[in-house]
Amino acid sequence: MTNNPYIPFPSKIISVVPQTAIDWTFRLESGITPVPGQFMELSIPGIGEAPVSISDFGPGWMDMTIRKVGRLTNAMFELKPGDILYMRGPYGNGFSIEHFQGQNLLIVAGGTGLAPVKSVISHFCRHRGQILDFDLILGFKTPSDILFHGEIEAWREFAGVILTVDRGGNDWHGCTGVVTRYIDDFKFHPGLTGAIVVGPPLMMKFSVLSLLQRGIPEDRIVVSFERKMSCGIGKCGHCKIDNTYICLEGPVFAYPQAKQLLD
C-alpha cells in the first residue's frame, strides 16, 4: 500500500453480500484502522471513482456497502471475490467513541444512513459496558429496502431496536411510520443522553428538532453529512458549504456546528 493518501491502492475483494436488490456489501482486504464514520474513495481504473462510507471494519478487512446507481457502481456489481477494487483514504472526521461513553446513546438512522454508523453500533455491542441505555431507531422506505437484516436481529441482544418502514404492505408485521414518530415515544434523561442522527436531509432535520424539543443538549447531538462527499481532499468544491469543506472538516459534525451549514 502506498504511503501517499491521494494515490489509490489495490484491495482484493474477500466477499460480496447482497443487502437489497441494489445495495451490496463488499468486504475488502485492508490493513487500515479507520475512525467510525470516515469514508474511502473506491475506483476501477478507466471507469471512475466514488466516495463510499465505511460500514464496518476489523483486523485485515473493511466493509463498504455500495448502492448500484450508475456506470461505476454497475461495474463494481460485476466483480466477485478475488477481484480487485482500488481505494484511497480514509478521509474525513468520524464519530468519537469517547464522546458517548458513560451515558445513554440513541442512534437514529434512515435508509443508507445506517451504513456509516454501523461500525459505531458494532463497537458498543462488543463493549456494551461503555454506555448506559442503548437504543436504535432504524427507518427504511419499504421492507425490501432494509439493510443488514442479520445484524439488526443480533443487535437486539445488546440494544433496544425499533425497525420501521414507511410502507409495509400485507406481509409486513413490524413497525410503520417515520422515525420521528418513535422518537416521541422515548423517555429521555437529557443530562445523560447523547444522540447520533444519520440519513436523508429532511429526516435528519426533523429528528434533530424532535430531540431538541425533548431537552437533549445541542452539543450531545451528532450528525453526518456523508451524502455530500465527492473528491475527499477539498479540491473539487462539491462538498463546500460557505467556507467549510465537508470532506475535510466532516462529514461528522456536532449539531452546534452542523446547524450553521445550510446548503
- The CATH class of the largest domain is Alpha Beta
How many separate domains make up the residues?
2
Question: With helices defined by DSSP (H or I, 4 residues minimum), what is the helix count?
Answer: 7
Question: For this structure, what is the CATH homologous superfamily of the largest domain?
Answer: Nucleotide-binding domain of ferredoxin-NADP reductase (FNR) module
Give the strand line-up of the largest sheet.
Answer: 10-9-8-7-11-12-15
Percent range for β-strand residues: 25-35%
Average predicted confidence as pLDDT: 90
Q: In percent, how helical is the residue content? A: 10-25%
* Large-scale geometry: globular
* Structural class by helix and strand composition: alpha/beta
How would you portray this structure in words?
There is one protein chain. The protein is of the alpha/beta class and 263 residues long. The chain has helices at 71-76, 114-126, 149-155, 179-183, 201-213, 246-249, 255-258, and strands at 9-18, 23-29, 39-44, 48-58, 61-67, 84-91, 104-110, 134-140, 160-165, 175-176, 193-198, 221-224, 240-241, 244-245, 252-254. The protein has two domains: 9-91, Elongation Factor Tu (Ef-tu), domain 3 (Beta Barrel); 97-258, 3-Layer(aba) Sandwich (Rossmann fold), CATH 3.40.50. The protein has seven helices and 15 strands. The strands form three sheets. Strands 10-9-8-7-11-12-15 form a seven-stranded mixed beta sheet, sandwiched between helices. The protein is globular and about 50 Å long. The N and C termini lie far apart (36 Å).
